[in-house]
Structure to design on (876 residues):
């Protein structure tokens, strides 16, 4: 693997113009290098090449917002007191002075009002958390839709899935720490979810809360998870994730000179590192701006948690939105057997359904590989349109996600748009099943139409917008051939192979069912795709074009009207007859 | 002066309404009646600012009531059952008291424009005086909660409170607010949804006496918080709290732009639109920017 890198890199280092300052700088570097030998030992790393595309930076947003989380989080630990012990608030927020509350809530108020810059830190931390998970999601979507999860990157795909899960857990733990009314309401729901687990639910809840909800233990426990356990796991997995990216090398878009064997782009040092480093400051800047200008989680308005209180507008952070939505639209199903209650209405939407959604996404690469039987490595990305079923599947999943998120805010939809909550719920119950199917169908057809358009361009050239009139009076549009580079880009993909169903008796009964299923899936995934033109088709098309040119050849000058195609100076021109 | 302007505004607003003509005539009649009453010998100690006795007010209120309210609430305020026999065109007003009338009429809910799921807030259709007559009439049907006075609902109007006592009252009000009201009206009083398209309206900008009257009379699906449940001081403190958290001087927007106080859903939208949206644009910009370096290298 690694020897490919050396081959694809230039042999002579880029010449650096030696200005005075740079010369001094390189002297320092040389001094350090002579003693530490870092540059020499890391040469391969430094010369590592990264291809350049904006979608390859989505993962970086996640990475840098995680760094912002770590930095702001460490500051918050200096003042936060993870205890549920009762104190009387005596800080500077007037409307709560003298109120009995937990130390956790009081210290969160102190950070907001009595620690200099504390509120900014709190808000930056929270915004960064929201952005972190959102960035993971868009990054994952880009990986999915370009087929970057294919061999050899399946493991990294799975690591990513675990990261999303850990990110959500981490976010939820953080949301629960300040012990305000929304935190507690969120924990109450979590408690309900856990209790709905068949058989062991109640036991698990007592274990987690060290007794009856809310107890005294949950905040200190969540604190350990939030500042130590989960971030440690995330950090380790991010490290593994990045190492694998370096080891596999980054994928790239098809183009002249780019193959499955090389990587074309900029070296790690200095171009990529400079860009990535710069991007860190941008992410930091955006979170700082949001933290400074946009209010998030104004805990002083919620008041301390008290199990007897609730408030309208209690919602979790956005990434829990789909669980919230599922809970809100689930019909009230319960079973009572032998004096026990089985709360399907909570268990299914709260625990089972989100896991199924994530699980299906995680398993897709393996499903696809099984169907195609493709064992080759892939370093060239698919254009989304060239995998219509995959792209449409993602679009459908996105629509489910969006609908459930909206269902989680049904009360706000009702008040802000004067709608009826019950009708929203009923609509959503149907829509979560119907809309994704429609979206899938439309997205797939859309991709196929785009594929067809590509084929047209390859065969007949692009549309110039010039209308020709033949001697017989028929109109036609002039097409011109596309550039070699574009033709390469459009044709750099393999033909899809639809697996045939086994003929009866050909396969012994045991494998037959699986083979049939595989053939069905293969047809579903690939049968409707438009394949790139064959050499023969290209030949014919060119022949046809030449023939047209011959027909036009009789004209002494270019067909009339051509002078107005925008490529010529038309001063004094008139239509000739 | 402010008072005058306000009633003038109401009058002109109301003149745009369809029953305006009728009401102007009625008003003329009333004034004539009032003048007559003022000069007649029956004026007694009961005389108030407009010089009407209580029974004259009730009579004036009855006339207004017959004109604007009786179609739904019946000739004698006994309520009208709808044609389907199940629901009310308007409920009985016997015993709802003057407070309910002040609240319903001054917030513009009554007269209801059309029977619907919930009478919306709108500009008031009656002057203060007319409202008082209506209230007097409805209160005469059977005893009910009377309209509160300024010291009932306004902490600032209570004399002899130290700054600390005032603050303690607000803190107490906050606790009561979070216990009794946020479930429907949201933690900031931004309002919330109720089943079947009904809603608990936002509390920002609602006049103090209307908040008091709302608690006292429990309009629609709002529970009645009688004086046994929340004492008049409790109510006063709740109102003081609502006003203090919505007052930009007492409670500045500490965290920045608050997105209407709608909570985490609005924050999530911001994270996507501003946060991820902005950062993706930056990513795009950076990637495009490298292409330029590339050209320079070529040159
Ligand atoms: C802690 C959160 C994460 C961080 C910090 C992170 C960071 C990164 C970075 C910086 C890259 C290289 C640049 C890029 O392609 O964008 C990358 C690549 C990758 N990530 Fe992530 N990522 C995270 C979560 C995820 C998730 C949730 C998934 C999918 C389930 C995922 C799957 C992948 C894959 C398959 C690659 C290789 C892509 C390629 O080479 O084209 N990552 N990640």
């Amino acid at each position: 693997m690694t020897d490919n890198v050396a081959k694809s890199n230039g042999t002579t280092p880029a010449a650096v113009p030696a200005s005075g300052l740079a010369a001094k700088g390189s002297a320092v570097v040389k001094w350090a290098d002579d003693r530490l030998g870092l540059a020499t030992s890391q040469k391969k790393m430094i010369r590592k090449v990264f291809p350049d595309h904006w979608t390859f930076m989505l993962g970086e947003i996640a990475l840098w917002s995680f760094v912002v989380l770590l930095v702001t989080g460490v500051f918050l630990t200096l003042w936060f007191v993870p205890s549920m012990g009762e104190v009387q608030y005596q800080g500077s927020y007037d409307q709560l002075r003298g109120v009995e509350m937990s130390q956790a809530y009081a210290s969160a108020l102190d950070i907001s009002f009595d620690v200099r810059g504390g509120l900014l830190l709190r808000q930056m931390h929270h915004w960064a958390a929201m952005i972190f998970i959102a960035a993971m999601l868009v990054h994952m979507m880009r990986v999915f839709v370009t087929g970057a999860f294919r061999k050899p990157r399946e493991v990294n795909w799975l690591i990513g899935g675990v990261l999303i899960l850990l990110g959500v857990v981490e976010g939820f733990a953080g949301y629960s720490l300040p012990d305000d009314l929304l935190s507690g309401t969120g924990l109450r729901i979590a408690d309900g979810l856990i209790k709905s687990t068949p058989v062991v639910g109640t036991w698990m809840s007592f274990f987690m809360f060290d007794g009856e909800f809310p107890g005294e233990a949950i905040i200190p426990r969540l604190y350990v998870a939030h500042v130590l356990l989960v971030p440690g796991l995330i950090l380790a997995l991010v490290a593994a994730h990045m190492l694998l990216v370096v080891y596999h090398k980054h994928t790239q878009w098809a183009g002249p000179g780019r193959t499955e064997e090389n990587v074309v782009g900029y070296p790690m040092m200095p171009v990529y590192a400079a860009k990535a480093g710069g991007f860190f400051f941008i992410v930091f800047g955006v979170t700082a701006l949001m933290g400074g200008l946009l209010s998030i989680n104004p805990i002083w308005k919620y008041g301390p948690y008290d199990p007897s209180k609730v408030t309208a507008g209690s919602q979790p952070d956005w990434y829990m939105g789909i669980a919230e939505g599922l809970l809100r639209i689930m019909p009230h199903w319960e079973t009572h057997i032998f004096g026990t209650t089985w709360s399907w209405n909570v268990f299914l939407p709260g625990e089972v359904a989100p896991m199924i959604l994530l699980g299906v996404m995680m398993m897709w690469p393996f499903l696809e590989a099984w169907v195609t039987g493709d064992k080759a490595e892939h370093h060239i990305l698919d254009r989304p349109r060239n995998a219509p079923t995959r792209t449409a599947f993602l679009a459908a999943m996105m629509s489910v996600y969006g609908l459930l998120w909206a269902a989680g805010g049904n009360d706000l939809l009702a008040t802000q748009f004067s709608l009826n909550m019950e009708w929203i719920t009923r609509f959503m119950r149907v829509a979560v099943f119907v809309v994704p199917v429609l979206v899938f169908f439309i997205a797939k057809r859309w991709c196929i139409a785009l594929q067809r358009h590509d084929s047209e361009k390859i065969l007949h050239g692009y549309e110039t917008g010039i209308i020709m009139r033949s001697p017989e009076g028929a109109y036609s549009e002039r097409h011109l051939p596309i550039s070699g580079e574009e033709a390469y880009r459009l044709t750099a993909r393999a033909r899809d192979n639809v697996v045939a169903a086994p003929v009866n008796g050909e396969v012994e009964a045991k494998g037959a069912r699986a083979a049939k299923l595989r053939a069905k899936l293969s047809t579903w995934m690939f049968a409707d795709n438009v394949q790139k033109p064959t050499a023969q088709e290209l030949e014919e098309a060119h022949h046809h074009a030449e023939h047209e040119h011959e027909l036009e050849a009789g004209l002494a000058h270019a067909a009339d009207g051509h002078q107005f195609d925008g490529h010529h100076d038309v001063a004094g021109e008139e239509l000739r007859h | 002066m402010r008072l005058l302007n306000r009633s003038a505004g109401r009058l002109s607003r109301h003149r745009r309404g369809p029953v305006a003509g009728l009401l102007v005539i009625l008003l003329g009649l009333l004034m004539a009646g009032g003048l007559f009453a003022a000069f007649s010998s029956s004026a007694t100690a009961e005389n108030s600012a407009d010089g009407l006795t209580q029974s004259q007010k009730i009579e004036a209120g009855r006339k207004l009531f017959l004109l604007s309210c009786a179609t739904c609430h019946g000739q004698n305020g006994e309520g009208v059952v709808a044609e389907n026999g199940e629901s009310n065109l308007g409920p009985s007003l016997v015993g709802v008291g003057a407070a309910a009338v002040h609240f319903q009429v001054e917030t513009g809910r009554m007269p209801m424009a059309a029977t619907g799921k919930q009478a919306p807030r709108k500009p008031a259709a009656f002057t203060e005086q007319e409202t008082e007559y209506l209230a007097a009439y409805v209160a005469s049907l059977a005893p009910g909660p009377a309209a509160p006075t300024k010291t009932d609902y306004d902490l600032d109007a209570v004399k002899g409170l130290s700054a600390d006592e005032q603050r303690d009252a607000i803190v107490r009000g906050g606790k009561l607010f979070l216990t009794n009201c946020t479930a429907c009206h949201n933690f900031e009083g931004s309002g919330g949804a109720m089943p079947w398209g009904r809603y608990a309206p936002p509390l920002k900008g609602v006049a103090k006496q209307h908040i008091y009257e709302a608690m006292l009379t429990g309009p629609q699906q709002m529970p009645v918080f009688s004086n046994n449940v929340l004492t008049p001081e409790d109510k006063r403190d709740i109102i003081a709290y609502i006003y203090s958290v919505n007052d930009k001087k007492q409670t500045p927007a500490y965290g920045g732009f608050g997105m209407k106080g709608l909570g985490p859903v609005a924050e999530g939208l911001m994270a996507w639109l501003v946060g991820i949206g902005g950062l993706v644009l930056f990513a795009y910009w950076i990637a495009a920017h490298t292409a330029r370096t590339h050209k320079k290298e070529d040159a």
